[in-house]
Design goal:
By secondary structure, this protein is mostly helical. 55% of the residues lie in helices and 11% in strands. The protein has 6 helices and 2 strands; from the N terminus they run E-E-H-H-H-H-H-H. A two-stranded antiparallel sheet has the order 1-2.
Length: 148
């Protein structure tokens, strides 16, 4: 049950004197307790229920065979397969152009597969080796979600 005060008391102070004024509050519409109760319950539930938060993750789709293949896996949402593919083909990175894209996709796939610490390590390696700002952004996202 919701109980609303019908009078509001305002307190004013001036030169060490206190004066209280009581003024009745007039509502333009009659109050419906059931509606107020439902609104309060809805607000409480909205405050305590979990809400799914979505985030956008960028990954490269062009660059070399590893990048294109991992991008296809990630587009399908098969992050575990993308991680396994990159793990099995990691030694091919040295002979490829745009290695930074493959490493970035690998770190992103690791994160989305739930391997956040490994993703952080891989992104750190990419930042050290290639210096791309995309790795810094990925590290920032990763550390923010680990600390929560």
């Amino acid at each position: 049950m919701v109980e609303l005060p019908y009078q509001i008391q305002n307190v004013y102070e001036a030169e060490f004197q206190t004066r209280r004024l009581s003024t009745p509050v007039e509502y333009p519409h009659p109050l419906n307790e059931q509606i107020l109760q439902n609104q309060a319950i809805d607000q409480l539930l909205a405050d305590i229920q979990s809400v799914k938060i979505t985030s956008s993750w960028l990954y490269y789709t062009k660059g070399n065979g590893l990048v294109e293949r991992t991008a296809a896996y990630m587009k399908r949402g098969d992050y575990q397969l993308a991680v396994r593919f990159m793990t099995e083909n990691a030694r091919q990175l040295d002979g490829l152009k745009k290695q930074d894209r493959a490493v970035y996709n690998f770190a992103t796939a690791l994160y989305l597969a739930g391997k956040k610490q490994e993703a952080l390590i891989k992104a750190g390696e990419g930042l050290d080796k290639y210096g791309a700002s995309s790795f810094r952004t990925l590290i920032h996202k990763n550390t923010k979600s680990i600390n929560i």
